[in-house]
Amino acid sequence: MKIATYNVNGINARLPVLLKWLSTSAPDIVCLQELKAPQEKFPEAAIAEAGYQSVWHGQKSWNGVAILTRNMAVHELAVSLPGDPEDAQSRYIQTEINGVLIGCLYLPNGNPAPGTKFDYKLRWLERFKAYTDTLLKLDKPVVLTGDFNIIPDEVDVYKPERWLEDALFRPEVRSAFRSLTEQGWIDAIRKLYPNETIYTFWDYFRGSFSRNAGLRIDHFLLSPHLESRLTAAGVDKYVRAWEKTSDHAPVWIELKDE
Questions:
Q1: Is the omega angle on the peptide bond into residue 112 within 30 degrees of 0, that is, cis?
Q2: Which of 28, 52, 92, 147 is catalytic?
């Protein structure tokens, strides 16, 4: 089973790119973030024509998450992160496929830091950590994936000294990510490639992609049940070179059958 995550940075603006990538990569499950479209503007018909069923939680102008499946039925199990019923931002959606619980998330950016946006990011992380505790207690396979907006370590960013005060790299958020791996969650990319320079995002400015001045902020966290089933992982960096593409590249993993 091939599972991918992709921050599309506007699903309707990037729809040709998304459809082209789906046809070339053919993942079984796709988690999308930053749809930037209200619920009624999600391109369900075009995605269905490409062979994918979908569930989504849209939001006007910003945010928005979706899960697509190829040749498999998909049903939403949750469309928000527990812990704050007044949080109206569309940042989490969950389903279960072939016995694997899949959570797709778009964690807040948090800039500028310090500030109210950074405070919201820290509160969201607290809620997320509490929920991951709950998920681990289910004692079943879980995949948590998406744009975490967290650079876990210096190896995950070009010239880390330039990011010390950024909300993606501040000690508080790096500590929060580390607490998840200490809790037992497996960083799939680092499990297979512990020391390699791997980026998933390149800014549109200053020729970042051509210089490979990137960040690794799109992650897969796997529950311990899936450690032995993880067989491959990678970044479809070539998609970032296409015209009118997202500033993120798709990231994927492959899990063998149980």
A1: yes
A2: 147
